[in-house]
Amino acid sequence: MHTSRRSFIKRSSMALAGSALLPRFILQGEESKDHVLGIQLWTVKDYMEKDPAGTLKLLSKMGYKYVENAGYENRKFYGYGVNDFKKLLSDTGLHMPSGHSFLGAAAWNKTNNDFTDEWKYTIEDASAVGMKYVLSPGVDESLCKNTDDFKWYMDLFNKTGELCKKAGITFGYHNENYEFNHSLNGTRLYDLLLQQTDKSLVVQQIDIGNMYEPGGRPMDYLKRYPGRFLLMHVKDEMKRNSPSKNGEVYESTVLGKGVIGVKQVVDYARKSGVQYFIIEQESFQDKTSIECAREDFNMMKKWGY
After folding, report:
1. Are 260 and 20 in contact, with CB atoms under 8 Å apart?
2. Using CA atoms, how far apart are residues 89 and 132, in angstroms rounded to an integer?
3. How does pLDDT run along the chain (305 residues), one tens digit per residue?
4. Angstrom distances, CA of residue 216 to CA of 12, 14, 60, 255
5. Which domains does the chain carry?
6. Which among 93, 138, 238, 298 could disulfide-bond with 253, CB atoms 3.0 to 4.6 Å apart, if both were Cys?
7. SS3 of 37, please?
8. What are phi and psi of 215, to 5 degrees?
Protein backbone atom coordinates (compact mmCIF):
# COMPACT_ATOMS: atom_id res chain seq x y z
CA MET A 1 0.00 0.00 0.00
CA HIS A 2 1.29 3.43 -1.01
CA THR A 3 4.75 2.14 -1.95
CA SER A 4 5.15 4.28 -5.07
CA ARG A 5 6.17 7.45 -3.22
CA ARG A 6 8.60 5.57 -0.99
CA SER A 7 10.05 3.72 -3.99
CA PHE A 8 10.54 7.01 -5.82
CA ILE A 9 12.27 8.61 -2.85
CA LYS A 10 14.39 5.51 -2.28
CA ARG A 11 15.57 5.55 -5.90
CA SER A 12 16.24 9.27 -5.69
CA SER A 13 18.24 8.93 -2.48
CA MET A 14 20.45 6.25 -4.00
CA ALA A 15 21.10 8.33 -7.12
CA LEU A 16 22.39 11.50 -5.47
CA ALA A 17 25.37 13.10 -7.13
CA GLY A 18 28.27 14.30 -5.02
CA SER A 19 29.40 17.92 -4.95
CA ALA A 20 30.75 20.53 -2.54
CA LEU A 21 28.78 21.11 0.62
CA LEU A 22 26.46 24.09 0.55
CA PRO A 23 26.19 26.65 3.33
CA ARG A 24 23.16 26.47 5.58
CA PHE A 25 20.50 29.13 5.67
CA ILE A 26 18.23 30.08 8.49
CA LEU A 27 14.57 29.17 8.00
CA GLN A 28 12.62 32.31 7.21
CA GLY A 29 9.11 32.73 8.54
CA GLU A 30 7.60 31.68 11.83
CA GLU A 31 5.26 28.71 12.12
CA SER A 32 2.24 28.93 14.36
CA LYS A 33 2.98 27.95 17.92
CA ASP A 34 -0.29 26.04 17.80
CA HIS A 35 -0.10 24.08 14.56
CA VAL A 36 1.09 24.10 10.96
CA LEU A 37 -1.19 23.04 8.11
CA GLY A 38 0.53 21.99 4.90
CA ILE A 39 0.46 19.59 1.98
CA GLN A 40 2.76 16.78 0.90
CA LEU A 41 3.66 17.64 -2.70
CA TRP A 42 3.36 13.98 -3.69
CA THR A 43 -0.38 14.67 -3.63
CA VAL A 44 0.00 16.84 -6.74
CA LYS A 45 3.02 15.06 -8.19
CA ASP A 46 1.50 14.98 -11.69
CA TYR A 47 1.31 18.78 -11.62
CA MET A 48 4.73 19.17 -9.99
CA GLU A 49 6.32 17.04 -12.70
CA LYS A 50 4.98 19.35 -15.43
CA ASP A 51 5.17 22.77 -13.78
CA PRO A 52 6.63 23.05 -10.27
CA ALA A 53 6.51 26.86 -10.16
CA GLY A 54 2.94 27.07 -11.44
CA THR A 55 1.78 24.33 -9.07
CA LEU A 56 3.27 26.05 -6.04
CA LYS A 57 1.53 29.28 -7.05
CA LEU A 58 -1.78 27.40 -7.31
CA LEU A 59 -1.33 25.91 -3.85
CA SER A 60 -0.46 29.30 -2.41
CA LYS A 61 -3.59 30.83 -3.95
CA MET A 62 -5.67 28.07 -2.35
CA GLY A 63 -4.40 29.21 1.03
CA TYR A 64 -1.57 26.80 1.71
CA LYS A 65 1.44 28.33 3.43
CA TYR A 66 3.46 25.16 4.01
CA VAL A 67 4.54 22.33 1.75
CA GLU A 68 6.48 19.11 2.27
CA ASN A 69 8.68 17.77 -0.49
CA ALA A 70 9.08 14.28 -1.94
CA GLY A 71 11.14 15.37 -4.92
CA TYR A 72 14.82 15.63 -3.99
CA GLU A 73 17.26 14.06 -6.44
CA ASN A 74 20.80 14.80 -7.58
CA ARG A 75 20.99 17.68 -5.11
CA LYS A 76 17.94 19.32 -6.66
CA PHE A 77 14.38 19.88 -5.54
CA TYR A 78 12.00 19.22 -8.43
CA GLY A 79 14.77 20.09 -10.86
CA TYR A 80 15.81 23.29 -9.05
CA GLY A 81 19.09 23.83 -7.26
CA VAL A 82 18.87 24.56 -3.56
CA ASN A 83 19.10 28.34 -3.81
CA ASP A 84 16.71 28.53 -6.75
CA PHE A 85 14.09 26.38 -5.04
CA LYS A 86 14.45 28.37 -1.85
CA LYS A 87 13.78 31.52 -3.88
CA LEU A 88 10.81 29.90 -5.62
CA LEU A 89 9.27 29.08 -2.26
CA SER A 90 9.84 32.62 -1.08
CA ASP A 91 8.39 34.12 -4.26
CA THR A 92 5.20 32.08 -3.83
CA GLY A 93 4.88 32.85 -0.11
CA LEU A 94 5.48 29.24 0.91
CA HIS A 95 7.66 27.60 3.54
CA MET A 96 8.92 24.01 3.52
CA PRO A 97 9.60 22.93 7.11
CA SER A 98 9.85 19.22 6.28
CA GLY A 99 10.67 16.82 3.48
CA HIS A 100 11.14 13.13 2.72
CA SER A 101 14.44 11.37 1.99
CA PHE A 102 14.80 7.61 2.39
CA LEU A 103 17.36 6.30 4.90
CA GLY A 104 18.56 2.80 4.06
CA ALA A 105 21.67 0.68 4.34
CA ALA A 106 23.19 2.54 1.37
CA ALA A 107 23.54 5.67 3.50
CA TRP A 108 26.32 4.11 5.59
CA ASN A 109 29.84 3.34 4.36
CA LYS A 110 30.98 0.33 6.40
CA THR A 111 34.54 0.64 5.09
CA ASN A 112 34.92 4.17 6.43
CA ASN A 113 32.51 3.59 9.30
CA ASP A 114 30.73 6.80 8.42
CA PHE A 115 27.80 8.16 6.46
CA THR A 116 28.25 8.40 2.71
CA ASP A 117 28.86 11.80 1.17
CA GLU A 118 25.52 11.50 -0.61
CA TRP A 119 23.62 11.19 2.67
CA LYS A 120 25.57 14.07 4.19
CA TYR A 121 24.62 16.20 1.17
CA THR A 122 20.98 15.26 1.71
CA ILE A 123 21.10 16.65 5.24
CA GLU A 124 23.11 19.70 4.23
CA ASP A 125 20.77 20.58 1.36
CA ALA A 126 17.70 20.12 3.56
CA SER A 127 19.12 22.62 6.02
CA ALA A 128 20.17 25.00 3.24
CA VAL A 129 16.73 25.10 1.63
CA GLY A 130 15.16 25.96 4.99
CA MET A 131 13.81 22.62 6.20
CA LYS A 132 13.65 21.81 9.91
CA TYR A 133 12.84 18.10 9.58
CA VAL A 134 14.23 15.39 7.30
CA LEU A 135 11.86 12.41 7.37
CA SER A 136 12.59 8.91 6.11
CA PRO A 137 9.46 7.30 4.59
CA GLY A 138 9.35 3.58 5.36
CA VAL A 139 12.03 1.13 6.34
CA ASP A 140 14.76 -0.67 4.41
CA GLU A 141 13.11 -4.08 4.33
CA SER A 142 16.45 -5.86 3.91
CA LEU A 143 17.34 -4.74 7.45
CA CYS A 144 14.09 -5.96 9.02
CA LYS A 145 14.56 -9.73 8.73
CA ASN A 146 16.25 -10.40 12.07
CA THR A 147 16.75 -8.64 15.39
CA ASP A 148 20.49 -7.98 14.95
CA ASP A 149 20.07 -6.21 11.60
CA PHE A 150 17.10 -4.27 12.88
CA LYS A 151 19.00 -3.13 15.97
CA TRP A 152 21.87 -1.97 13.74
CA TYR A 153 19.33 -0.11 11.61
CA MET A 154 17.78 1.64 14.58
CA ASP A 155 21.27 2.65 15.70
CA LEU A 156 21.67 4.19 12.24
CA PHE A 157 18.47 6.15 12.83
CA ASN A 158 19.91 7.52 16.07
CA LYS A 159 23.24 8.32 14.39
CA THR A 160 21.34 10.21 11.69
CA GLY A 161 19.57 12.11 14.43
CA GLU A 162 22.96 13.20 15.75
CA LEU A 163 24.14 14.14 12.25
CA CYS A 164 21.03 16.25 11.69
CA LYS A 165 21.43 17.94 15.05
CA LYS A 166 24.88 19.14 14.01
CA ALA A 167 23.29 20.65 10.89
CA GLY A 168 20.69 22.46 12.97
CA ILE A 169 17.77 20.29 11.87
CA THR A 170 15.96 17.17 13.14
CA PHE A 171 15.65 13.65 11.75
CA GLY A 172 12.35 11.82 11.78
CA TYR A 173 10.48 8.78 10.56
CA HIS A 174 7.32 8.51 8.47
CA ASN A 175 5.47 5.21 8.60
CA GLU A 176 4.30 3.32 5.55
CA ASN A 177 2.38 0.04 5.87
CA TYR A 178 5.12 -2.62 5.92
CA GLU A 179 5.87 -1.91 9.57
CA PHE A 180 2.31 -2.89 10.52
CA ASN A 181 2.08 -6.28 8.84
CA HIS A 182 5.58 -7.47 9.74
CA SER A 183 7.03 -8.30 13.14
CA LEU A 184 10.10 -9.67 14.91
CA ASN A 185 9.74 -12.08 17.82
CA GLY A 186 6.05 -11.35 18.03
CA THR A 187 6.36 -7.56 18.18
CA ARG A 188 5.14 -5.35 15.35
CA LEU A 189 8.02 -3.57 13.60
CA TYR A 190 6.48 -0.16 14.14
CA ASP A 191 6.39 -0.72 17.89
CA LEU A 192 9.99 -1.90 17.83
CA LEU A 193 10.98 1.20 15.90
CA LEU A 194 9.31 3.46 18.44
CA GLN A 195 10.92 1.55 21.31
CA GLN A 196 14.46 1.40 19.87
CA THR A 197 14.86 4.96 18.60
CA ASP A 198 15.90 7.80 20.87
CA LYS A 199 12.97 10.21 21.02
CA SER A 200 15.38 13.09 21.55
CA LEU A 201 17.06 12.28 18.20
CA VAL A 202 14.27 10.81 16.06
CA VAL A 203 10.86 12.48 15.84
CA GLN A 204 7.85 10.70 14.40
CA GLN A 205 5.48 11.64 11.59
CA ILE A 206 2.45 9.38 11.91
CA ASP A 207 0.63 8.64 8.64
CA ILE A 208 -2.89 7.79 9.72
CA GLY A 209 -3.82 6.38 6.30
CA ASN A 210 -0.88 4.11 5.55
CA MET A 211 -1.38 2.14 8.74
CA TYR A 212 -5.08 1.50 8.23
CA GLU A 213 -5.04 -1.35 5.66
CA PRO A 214 -2.77 -3.65 7.70
CA GLY A 215 -4.67 -3.02 10.93
CA GLY A 216 -2.95 -0.05 12.58
CA ARG A 217 -5.27 2.47 14.17
CA PRO A 218 -4.07 6.05 14.73
CA MET A 219 -5.94 6.69 17.97
CA ASP A 220 -4.42 3.54 19.44
CA TYR A 221 -0.87 4.70 18.69
CA LEU A 222 -1.44 8.31 19.72
CA LYS A 223 -2.65 7.07 23.11
CA ARG A 224 -0.12 4.26 23.50
CA TYR A 225 2.90 6.48 22.77
CA PRO A 226 1.96 9.93 24.09
CA GLY A 227 4.30 12.70 23.10
CA ARG A 228 6.11 10.70 20.40
CA PHE A 229 4.40 12.25 17.38
CA LEU A 230 5.28 15.79 16.34
CA LEU A 231 4.07 15.56 12.75
CA MET A 232 1.13 13.86 11.05
CA HIS A 233 0.14 12.93 7.53
CA VAL A 234 -3.56 13.66 7.45
CA LYS A 235 -5.19 11.13 5.17
CA ASP A 236 -8.51 9.36 4.80
CA GLU A 237 -9.22 5.89 3.39
CA MET A 238 -12.23 4.49 1.59
CA LYS A 239 -13.09 0.99 0.38
CA ARG A 240 -12.16 0.30 -3.23
CA ASN A 241 -14.81 -0.88 -5.69
CA SER A 242 -12.62 -3.97 -6.08
CA PRO A 243 -9.30 -5.06 -4.53
CA SER A 244 -6.08 -3.83 -6.14
CA LYS A 245 -3.69 -6.23 -7.85
CA ASN A 246 -1.91 -6.47 -4.49
CA GLY A 247 -5.13 -7.37 -2.73
CA GLU A 248 -5.57 -3.99 -1.02
CA VAL A 249 -9.17 -3.10 -0.28
CA TYR A 250 -8.68 0.56 0.71
CA GLU A 251 -7.46 3.66 -1.11
CA SER A 252 -7.07 7.26 -0.03
CA THR A 253 -9.84 9.76 -0.60
CA VAL A 254 -10.88 13.32 0.23
CA LEU A 255 -10.79 14.04 3.95
CA GLY A 256 -14.05 13.25 5.69
CA LYS A 257 -15.25 10.93 2.93
CA GLY A 258 -13.61 7.77 4.25
CA VAL A 259 -13.69 5.43 7.25
CA ILE A 260 -10.87 6.72 9.48
CA GLY A 261 -12.78 9.40 11.39
CA VAL A 262 -10.13 11.98 10.60
CA LYS A 263 -11.61 14.90 12.51
CA GLN A 264 -11.64 12.94 15.76
CA VAL A 265 -8.02 11.87 15.17
CA VAL A 266 -6.66 15.32 14.32
CA ASP A 267 -8.55 16.96 17.19
CA TYR A 268 -7.02 14.49 19.64
CA ALA A 269 -3.59 14.81 18.01
CA ARG A 270 -3.67 18.59 18.27
CA LYS A 271 -4.22 18.34 22.02
CA SER A 272 -1.56 15.66 22.48
CA GLY A 273 1.41 17.46 20.94
CA VAL A 274 1.21 17.06 17.16
CA GLN A 275 2.14 20.40 15.62
CA TYR A 276 2.54 19.75 11.88
CA PHE A 277 -0.55 18.52 10.02
CA ILE A 278 0.43 17.64 6.46
CA ILE A 279 -2.35 16.70 4.04
CA GLU A 280 -1.64 13.84 1.66
CA GLN A 281 -3.90 12.11 -0.84
CA GLU A 282 -2.74 9.46 -3.31
CA SER A 283 -5.96 8.29 -5.01
CA PHE A 284 -8.46 10.74 -6.42
CA GLN A 285 -11.43 8.74 -7.73
CA ASP A 286 -13.08 10.91 -10.43
CA LYS A 287 -11.31 14.18 -9.53
CA THR A 288 -7.95 15.77 -10.29
CA SER A 289 -5.23 15.91 -7.66
CA ILE A 290 -5.44 19.73 -7.58
CA GLU A 291 -9.19 19.61 -6.98
CA CYS A 292 -8.64 17.18 -4.12
CA ALA A 293 -5.88 19.35 -2.66
CA ARG A 294 -8.36 22.24 -2.55
CA GLU A 295 -11.13 20.13 -1.00
CA ASP A 296 -8.80 18.67 1.61
CA PHE A 297 -7.56 22.14 2.57
CA ASN A 298 -11.09 23.50 2.84
CA MET A 299 -12.14 20.56 5.01
CA MET A 300 -9.26 21.13 7.43
CA LYS A 301 -10.12 24.83 7.62
CA LYS A 302 -13.75 23.92 8.25
CA TRP A 303 -12.53 21.79 11.16
CA GLY A 304 -10.68 24.79 12.57
CA TYR A 305 -7.15 24.23 11.29
Report:
1. no
2. 15
3. 445 555 555 555 444 433 333 333 223 334 445 799 999 999 999 999 999 999 999 999 999 999 999 999 999 999 999 999 999 999 999 999 999 999 999 999 999 999 999 999 999 999 999 999 999 999 999 999 999 999 999 999 999 999 999 999 999 999 999 999 999 999 999 999 999 999 999 999 999 999 999 999 999 999 999 999 999 999 999 999 999 998 999 999 999 999 999 999 999 999 999 999 999 999 999 999 999 999 999 999 999 99
4. 28, 29, 33, 18
5. 3-17+33-302 (3.20.20.150)
6. 238
7. strand
8. 105, 0
Round to whole Å and give the CA distance between 136 and 180: 16
52-77 in b/e form (b: 16+ CB < 10 A) is: beebbbbbbeeebbbbbbbbbbebbb
Nearest to 233 by CA among 273, 214, 257, 206: 206
The C-alpha atoms of residue 53 and residue 33 are separated, in whole angstroms, by: 28
For 193, list phi and psi in degrees, rounded to 5: -60, -45
Query: Exposure string (b/e) for 216-255, b if CB count within 10 Å is 16 or more?
Result: bbbeebbeebeebbbbbbbbbbbeeeeeeeeeeebbbbbb
C-alpha to C-alpha distances, 94 to 43, 107, 184, 187, nearest whole angstrom: 16, 30, 42, 41
Locate all alpha helices (DSSP H) within 167-253, ordered by sequence: 189-196, 218-224
- Helices marked H in the chain: 3-14, 45-50, 52-62, 82-91, 117-129, 147-166, 189-196, 218-224, 262-271, 289-302
Contact predicate 86/25, CB 8 Å: yes
What residue type is assigned to position 179 of the chain?
A: E
The structure's pTM equals 0.90
User: What are the φ and ψ backbone dihedral angles of 244, each rounded to 5 degrees?
Assistant: -70, 175
